[in-house]
Amino acid sequence: MQLSKYIQELLYKYECVTIPQFGAFLTRPLPAQVSLSGAFFPPRKEVTFNKLLTTNDGVLAHHYAQKESMSYEHALRLIEKEVSNWKKRMKTQTLHFTGVGEIQLNLDRKITFSPLGSVNFNINSFGLSSFHRKPILKVIVEPKIISLMEDKNKDDLMFTPENDGTKKSGILRYAAIGIIGIALVSASYYFGDQYVSNQRLVAQEKAQKQIEKNVQEATFDLGSLDAIEVSVTTELAPEKVVLDQIYYSIIAGSFRSLENAENKIESLKEEGYETAELAQVNPEGLYRASYGRFATKKEAINLLYFLKYTLKEDAWYLEEK
Q: What end-to-end distance do the CA atoms of the chain give, in Å?
């Protein structure tokens, strides 16, 4: 069964991929980093696993049904069967998820997840890979002392200098050579660092142009869908849509029926979540009920952490563009 492969594909598009009755894989964006040793890491997404998020949101089942050309219900049954096999195998061995990580039980019989880290799920970093910047070697110029005295007769000569002018000029000459050497080392280090920075910017610009070109030339096979009859009532007031506005929503659940989604919103409002409302419909046509939709990412993340770690509720984060 290619379920782990489909999980890997969905992690490029979604920040949360839920496996019903098993858990959810989450991605957290990380910025570009440069370590003290000179290693450069491009922007990437770190994968984690949350065993508390087990409610089916329909994303994995719909994707699996589309890829395998089967009904949603049949795909859901196959996923439940595979999850049952995972739970049995996990008691004695490690579960491997291609390109994502490994799951196993520790000595306390609790689930632990080890990400592989070999795949970067941030599509904006396509073509960028980590590398180690080689240190710039410092060039030290040592002054060469040339003896002006030539012993032709190979006799020991003893003399007393008549004045100190020659001695002072020699010291000044060596000092000037040392200053020139230090200046050359500083200049080579400065221009070398500037060159490395410029090359990094050029590489990022080329990678960004390649990403835009690939996205423009990409074609997607969405398959064929059965015709669905939809009844529309004019009693519902149209939602106000703001162009070019990004919303950050905390999703409570996804439903195939609009009525069920609205009932969930009413239930959330009765529990005290006054900001509960419908979120953006997902590409598979499921209606999403959210605890709230916010104009800033900080407000959404604060609510998500409160729900997950304080109230132990099943919720996940969605960025609506």
A: 33
Give the CA distances from residue 297 to residues 31, 210, 216, 247, 273, in Å, rounded to whole numbers and listed in that order: 16, 28, 28, 8, 18
**Residue 254 identity:** S
Q: Give this prediction's pTM.
A: 0.40
pLDDT value at residue 177: 86
Cα–Cα distance measured from residue 3 to residue 78, given in angstroms and rounded to the nearest whole number: 10
Query: What's the CATH code, domain 3-124?
Result: 4.10.520
Buried b (16+ CB within 10 A) or exposed e, 50-76: beebebbbbbbbbbbbbeeeeeeeebb
Tokens 């007393």 correspond to what residue? 160
Enter the CATH code of domain 247-320: 3.30.70.1070
- pLDDT at site 207: 58
Give me 49's structure tokens: 């696993």
Residues facing residue 294 across a β-bridge: 248
Q: Enumerate the domain spans of the chain.
A: 3-124, 134-144+173-215, 247-320
Confidence at residue 24, expressed as pLDDT on a 0 to 100 scale:
93
243 vs 258: which has the higher pLDDT: 258
Residue-averaged pLDDT of the chain: 77
Structure tokens at 14: 């979604």
The C-alpha atoms of residue 134 and residue 253 are separated, in whole angstroms, by: 50
d(CA 316, CA 229): 30
Kindly report, residue by residue over 300-309, the tens digit of the pLDDT.
888 888 888 8
What is residue 249's predicted lDDT score, i.e. its pLDDT?
92
For residue 134 the two structure tokens come to 């080689």
Query: 156-165 contacts: CB < 8 A, separation 24 or more?
Result: none
